[in-house]
Structures
1.
Amino acid sequence: MPQPTFARSPAPAPLLTVTADTLVAADFGPRASARTRAGAGRPPGPYRRLLAVPGARAFTAGNLTARLPMGMFSVSAVVMIAGTRDSYALAGAVTATGLAATALVAPWTARLIDRHGQARVALPATLIAVLGSLALLLCVRHGAPDWTLFAAYAATATTPNTGGMSRARWAHLLKGDAAALHTANSFEQAADELCFMLGPVLAVALCGALFPEAGTLVGAFLLLAGMLLFTAQRATEPPPARARHTAGTRQVPPLRAPGMPPLLAVCLATGGVFGSMEVVTIAFADAHGHGGAAGVILALQAAGSCAAGLLYGAVRPARPAQARLPWCVAAMTALLVLPALAAAGTGSLALLGATLLLAGMATAPTMVTTMTLVQRRTPKGRLNEGMTLAVTGLLGGIACGSAAGGWAADHLSAAAGYGVPVAAAAVALVITLLPLPGSRAHH
């Protein structure tokens, strides 16, 4: 399969070169080199150079379109089910079932994608997931028995990990260019934050302005349309693992690869931060009589993470990812103390939103660094599976964090509940500091 080529000097050039008094964009391709040598205008930034890779804009547009519904489906299902069945307990149980099914099915879907190619597996898997969403919509609309809601939503577990597939394409296109890959991973993390920031807002707006099923219907359409566009970009698709390895070659599964178990444990603990923060913030806003402001406050946290992710990707780290991870997690833990202090102090929602904006700025660098290490420690040809295992760890942590945050808010107080994300981040920090086997060999 043809692959874009880049002009390189004997030593790989970084995306950014820091000098004593300026920050200069480094060369990234022959056209950028010619423009820089000619002195014609300001050199393009790292993200413009990243999206100048042939085919990058097309697969990114498709992937972002397919990824936006990931922030819509759960909220849409809760609004749709609770609005028609008058039961938040049923809505929560249905979405929890879908989350559990995804945790079981997603790694198998990713393994098939690695083995047979993105287009051959991701599109049929998406069709099954879209049919599951439409079945859920029809069951709710026509008053079907409750058990049908669980079955229909469980079928959506075949939804491919769109973010993982996009990261796999960047890893294929930017092979050997660590600086460019760092920028790509930061871009993808910022995209994740943006989609999970805009998705719930769009879902609630559609369900409220049109009809309860509108969020699910639009989400299913965007998922299918985006995946059709993404999988149509065959020139940037990584070759299947079967084509890259000889028959009979046995590999260590990603779950057992050296250094992977502690990384997945970090993902689990970080997911606990996300899950507990969401529930506790909703409870805190509701306790102060401003339940409708919870979405805006959580959006501030996602906005801080998105901005920090883009900034983090614009500079070239001076230390290896393994050495950076404890510092990133330590910063996340320290900044998460700020919302806890704000909630326990004045109880001001404005102050809480400001502290969540600051706290969010540490989550993206943590996730970018974690995902970079996951990529490096995943066996060759199994990248989608490795990335999906990391996402599965995050989902499991979100579920546990939601339960712990909800318990704290009910039995202690909403303000005390902010201790749960701090505790989860502290657990992640301890894991990164433990001298676990295989961590030294994988920088």
2.
Amino acid sequence: MKNQLSSWLFFRSYSVIAAGILIVALALDSLLLWLLPDNQQSSAERYSAEFAFIELILAGEGEEPGAVSRLFETMQPTLEEAAGVPVSLYEVAEMGDQQAFLTALRSGTVQTFIDGNSQEILYRMLPSGEQLIALGPLPAPPVSQASVETLVIVSYYLLVALLLFLWLRPFYRDLSALRHAASQFGRDDFETRVAVGSNSSILPVASSFNKMAERIQYLVTAHRDLTNAVAHELHTPLARFKFGLEMIPKMEAGERLTEHLNGMKSDVQELEELIDEMLTYARLSEDNLQLQLHTVRLNDWLKLQLAQYRDSQPPVLLNVKPEDDLTAVAFNPELLARAIHNIVRNCLRYAVTEVTVSCLIRAGEVKLCIFDDGPGIPEADWQRVFEPFARLDTSRDRQSGGYGLGLAIAKRILQRHGGDIHLAEHSPQGACFVLSWPYN
């Protein structure tokens, strides 16, 4: 999904730039055609009618050069007025050694010559082959084609530059926001997030950064809370053990000393259990942890796990469907057994008459529900109960309330199976823990 989003944003950005450049090019091309509609014709083509008119007038005297020259001297003002440009008559002999130029003229074409003032002069040879008609210097057009083309080219590059600026400006702004957020995050401001628009080109990068920031913030916060909680939990048994060591020299050998030593042994055992619980929670938090899954019949396995509560008060009941007896599902039996026992024992502390375990297997998913009929858990605390060392009842001590890691470990185990655990409504009262995971 992330790769598809990145590809789509890249393709969209590329399409916008390509379409913008194409639109600019087409618009300026249309403008060029509008400004220079007549410049598609050369000067020779535009003055072809004038050459034909002059030749027609001079042809009345035949092809004898002297007669043509005399008629031209008489008609020159009239011809110039009709042509709108200066008209001149030259003898071929006056061209000297311009043989290439004369050869081109003898082919019947109009030849162009640019004089010293950069003005255009048109030449055409009369049918006699002895004389040339020259039109020009031609007047410069109001707007030269070269100037218009130069203006259009400059406008094209300016518009493309503007288009790129408009595209790069939000891109640079978003990159600056990302750089600032990374800088703030590096200064331990873990609340920093990158805010970009839904159409931003760096949206995938910003989303990845925000997810990374959330993950790091969670880990840092969890590490700090866990460190504080561990220090608190270790402080109590260590304080009792230290007090016990100080009291030993003051006691005489006997039953009281033995009882005191047994209490110190209990403190040591409590420390060992707490450390074991913390190591288990830390191991389940490792991202590279690989579970060994086994395929077992879940109903039979549940009956075996709950057999140890056969004589418990209140009783633990199992509610399964007969059609699921033959269904085999995959999971890690050791870890899942620990999760179930942690929850069942939690429910037994508060149940009034019974604890019930039900199982539902549907469409590749297993759903276990463990609920009691005790006072229940306020909905506002449904998420907090799964946090390490969380205790809703502050009056509970280690004998009744454990270490506050049981539910946190159970949640980690379900997450390692690709599932989750949450609390749900239970009528008329009590807590309902729902464990679900995909088994195929």
3.
Amino acid sequence: MISQYQESLLLSARTFQSGPSDSTFEDVLEHIDSGILLFDDEGVLTFVNKQMYGILELNRHSLLGCTLHHLLSHIQLSRFKKKQVLRSYREMVLKGKPSYEFVDEYGRYWRASLSSGEEMKGSYLFTLKEISDYKLIEQTAYQNDSLAMLGRLSASIAHEIRNPLTAIRGFIQLLHPHLHLLGKEEYAKIILAEIDRANDIIHEFLTSSKPSVPQISMIPVSALLKEVVLLTESEALMKGCQINLQVLQEDLVISGDIKQMKQVVLNMIRNAMEAILERVDDSTGRIEVGARKEGTEVRIFISDNGKGMDICTLDRLFNPFFTTKENGTGLGLSVSDRIIKNHGGCISVSSRLNEGTRFVISLPLIH
């Protein structure tokens, strides 16, 4: 079975092969939004449209009369593109699959399709179409489904687990004096810490599925960052790193929910601490926190000299449930991203392995 879109391409290709005096069909093939390669029954390339030349990044009419072997040995064709052409050939010609999807070196999604058989009279028609927009819609739909499922799950977790945890915590505190007499006070501390960690996980689930309505107020950025750094300084020292707060302009003001903004900055500083702990060298851990005005925006930045991240991790960093931590939930940055977007801003991140990471929160400046 072939699609209506492929049928129109087949009709145009067959008509073009028959050599019409009118160039209408050639013009159609030249201006469609897909790249086209047409091989005859002997495997010789008889037609390439300008879209395909652009995709392959080759000079115009440099391929006509070539075979697939000549195409793969073309001196101007990049190694990555040769690899994808060969994989497409294996998947669709040798394995008989009607299409093959891949991601190029620029992060764009493509679908290659093959039409052959009786309707092509022995010829092969390869079409290549960018499907990045479709993939984005697909990923958004998947994310929305995940969040909907998370909403139902978190409501159940909150009622079924939080109440027993509260009761357990109360009894452990009552037993604390007896454990102290037995010399087992450390056990009580461990149990309480684990109960608090379980409660934090439940809180993250609830926040990600049902974020509270922001309580809007004017927030001086200087005061916000000073308070968050003060809250995290002792924890940072225990983990062997220093937090440096740069000198800030006192007139930088944003509009938003002060609790939610603290949650975002705290989360990023704690992530920086974790990244520093996972380094391979013994150099001093440093976390830089600051803010500056750029046009009509305030840019808050948190940077560290931790282990850094690769490209694959950066691409999925803000996806719900994605985490590189052994005990992480994968919700912290997802929630932070949603909070900042609800405030009319955005979060950007840059990172390099073994060099560090830099987060930048951009928010509208209030005059």
4.
Amino acid sequence: MSVEVKDASLPHPDHDNPNHARRWLVLCIVGLAQLTVVLDATIVSIALPQAQLDLGISDGDRHWAVTAYALAFGALLLLGGRIADFWGRKRSFMVGMIGFAIASAVGGLAQTGVQLFAARAGQGVFAALLAPAALAILTTTFTEGRERAKAFAVYGAISGGGAAVGLLLGGLLTEYVDWRWCLLVNVPVALFALAVTAPIVRETKAHGDVRYDIPGTVLVALGLGALVYGFTQAEKHGWDSAPAIGFVVVGLLALGAFVAVEKRSSHPLLPLYIPWDRNRAPGLIGSLVIGSVLIGGTLYLTFYLQIVLGMSPFVSGVASLPLTVAITVAAGVAAQASTRIGPKVPMAVGPVVAAAGLVLMLTRIDVDSSYWTVVLPALLVLGFGIGLMIAPMQNVALVGVRDHDAGAASALVNAAMQIGGALGTALFTTIYVSAKSSYSTSNPAAHPFSVEVSGYAHVFGWAAVFLVIVSPIVMALVRVTKDELPAEGAVGVH
């Protein structure tokens, strides 16, 4: 018989939460899991040029190493949250970690591009179970205001800094060990997390309706998958080709059917009042665009730094860090500004600033451009603009949401970023390949690097267009005041 020791220093020592006594250890475990999920989005981007050469992946297909992960993660994130609540948060956490480790091992040992893409999709599937389970454990473990705020601050710092860790670790492993270890490194991390989770974390579940919206899950996954595949067919056969049009139409029809199913479902995967709200809709659109730019657009920054400027993987990882630093600084500025003047201004200004950074990049990059005078200033402006958008958009996502649906609303913002990344990566790849082809035709004697730069510039240009479109939508629809923002803000899962 074991006796649970209670912390007498707390004002309310009696808790029905079985994880309360060991809450700080639980925070360490959850933080480790979150770091694994977040850094995996950027660690592979740094390794991708080497993986492409090793596995013989074409320029048109290499994006699947990023797209497969983001698409599976984003499409299944809402379902993963429901499973974690109903099946058990500890159980879902451990199964998600085991599956993530197995998929990582398969990817690290891949001998073909298809094997790598399948493994990345597998990572996304299990990340969609692992990430919401980790957040649910954290939310139910820290229930008192001051400690909860501290725990969420740590969690948010890990979410924001994980991308930077991925850039550095990916560069180190690719340059000094092998690109495969960018995936294999997850295996020992997962084994350690499992070893400490089993004896420390206690099981918790949600009560009430435990039915799953399987039709909704199938339709949203089918719709998003068809859209992404349609974009890739446009790159191969043209936008007016039957495969491109056909898959895009199938995707839109499936998403339309998803809306119809959710309207009639007594236990919807996504209560439709959440995305339909005039304040939340701009935040979700902004999250889609942020995901497309951060996951899709900046992938081509990696290629530019390594392929054109000749940086090593590690140096290119370090060279990308100012983007993360600028995002972190601006997110803090935006959070403070939102409490003083409301979220509308930073939400509207941020896209314009970020677009200016991309315009600064596309108008000045060349085969022999200087990182210090061209790339670095553009990264700082881009990152600052994106940082201005993120915090207020996540906060607005929770305004007016019923307590029962708060998890779904928060997960939807993060799912939107991942889905935006998947769609953006596929779309930007089509733009990149088309621009290269057009430039080569017009300039048959051009240097290969000049052709590459032409493709990158078009990607940055279209990313800037998508960002600018967000501002008028925010100005027209958002009506939230500073007094309506949730006191604790939103916590991102990414």
